[in-house]
Every structure is written in structure tokens, then in C-alpha cells.
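Sequence in, structure out.
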Amino acid sequence: MRRSNDGTQRAWLRLKGVMALATIALALAGCGQRPVYSHFEPTHSSGWDRGDTLHFTIPVADSTRCRTIRLDVRTTSAFPYTQLTLLVRQHARATGKRRQDSLTIDIADRKGNPIGSGTAVRTHTTTLPIAAMAPNDTIDISVSHAMNRREMPGISDVGITVED
């Protein structure tokens, strides 16, 4: 009788262990997988003017969840450089925290071969550092280019995606 009780107890402990591992795996896998916000702003067809700042307003329901903010730039073959420098400003309304970053995105390799995903229009992605935020906060993000040339051709649109 003792053997069957020990066998049942071992099976129960194994099941609990498997369930604990599955719960941890699901919790880790869920982070960064689900877009909760995604929006693209088009630029002018003749070129993105340095004075044309693109604005994104992102409601944040819960700041305790892990978040990734991704910036995507879509370019065409008309883009004349191998890199694009952007000025990104963030403002968390509830906390009042502000953050400003200058980001350089590689558009082509050193030989001039385009990089990024896509064919006629290529997407270039970078992850943004996140400004401090509170529950039920709203983040305002503005993006402008910081290139020497005033009007930048070959940029079709810029987008922000937030993932849990």
C-alpha cells in the first residue's frame, strides 16, 4: 500500500513541477509579443521636411507590464544616404518625465547596398528607450529628422509600435 501512495505522490509532484515550468514559460513568452498600439504617419511625397515633426499619442493602460516601443522607418530607393538620423522626443503626461534621443538608423551598408526588410519599400526598425510612465498614463512621442539636408527624399512613412 505504501508503494502506490509514494507513486501517486511522485506523480503529483512531477505534475506540479511541469505546471510551474509551463506557467513561467508562458509568462516570459508573452512579453514583447502582442502589439497594443501601432500607427504610421506618412511623409510628404516630395520629401520629409525637417520642420515636419510627426506626432504619436499613445495611451498606456498599465505601466507594470513589460513594454517595448519600436520605431519603424520605411524608405524607398530615392533615399540618398546610408544612414538616417532622427530626433525622438517623449513626454509622459502623468509623471511629467521627458526624454530626448538622437537615433541613427542604418539604411544601407558601407557599399551602398540597401538593408532592412522589404523590396521596393524597406522597413528599418529600432527600439526606443522608454520614458518613465505611470499607470493610465499617456506618452506623446514626436519624431523629426536631423539630417543636414532640409528636405529628405525617399522616406515614405514613420511608425511607432508598442508591444506588451
